[in-house]
Structure to design on (224 residues):
């Protein structure tokens, strides 16, 4: 397991570097987020040993259960919340994460603002856009994105780093990455969290600054 995960991590980094070079990116290097959701500490440690320090989790409670010890053992870890956030978990999310990718509605934005002020912490924030307008998926609708970004920045005073999306599984991801980049550009946002194990090279081509790769590093997940 350990050698396999480290080798896969190296392969992903090499592929990202190749695409960056091929497309002559001028926006700086891509941040690889190793998505460790559903994997326990023994499975994560080999990836930490290989030098990876940026990780993504979907659930607040799962992260709080396994990362305090890992962060104590491996200084410099940056933890990203990439899954949907419930407003009643805002306190724990601000305590636990360095970056939150799933700000997607006014209630969440307001509760995060309250907790950030209360705790004196400022995790970096991304707004999730539902580029496919899928009813079962989290994210602000594209037509509402400009107004929501303005609300977060102007009314609430939140510092928004960028945008995040998860394209529909049955559609070409490139069109969704291009839409996200367009919304970000017209709002003066430079950070784009997009691309996962199956499509991260396409995301890098479209300007991703952060790619979220899990199974291609850790192996297939067991959800049973």
């Amino acid at each position: 397991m350990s050698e396999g995960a480290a080798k896969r991590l190296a392969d992903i980094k090499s592929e990202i570097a190749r695409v960056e070079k091929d497309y002559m990116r001028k926006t700086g290097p891509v941040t690889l987020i190793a998505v460790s959701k559903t994997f326990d500490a023994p499975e994560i440690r080999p990836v930490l040993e290989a030098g990876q320090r940026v990780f993504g989790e979907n659930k607040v409670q799962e992260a709080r259960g396994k990362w305090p010890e890992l962060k104590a053992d491996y200084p410099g870890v940056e933890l990203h919340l990439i899954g949907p956030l419930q407003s009643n978990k805002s306190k724990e999310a601000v305590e636990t994460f360095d970056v939150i990718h799933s700000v997607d509605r006014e209630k969440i934005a307001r509760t995060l603002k309250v907790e950030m002020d209360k705790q004196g912490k400022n995790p970096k924030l991304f707004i999730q856009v539902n580029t496919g307008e899928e009813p079962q998926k989290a994210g602000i609708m594209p037509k509402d994105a400009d107004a929501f970004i303005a609300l977060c920045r102007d009314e609430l005073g939140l510092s928004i780093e960028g945008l995040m999306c998860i394209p529909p599984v049955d559609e070409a991801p490139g069109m969704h990455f291009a839409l996200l980049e367009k919304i970000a550009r017209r709002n003066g946002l430079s950070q784009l969290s997009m691309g996962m194990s199956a499509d991260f090279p396409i995301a890098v081509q479209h300007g991703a600054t952060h790619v979220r790769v899990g199974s291609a590093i850790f192996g297939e997940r067991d959800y049973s």
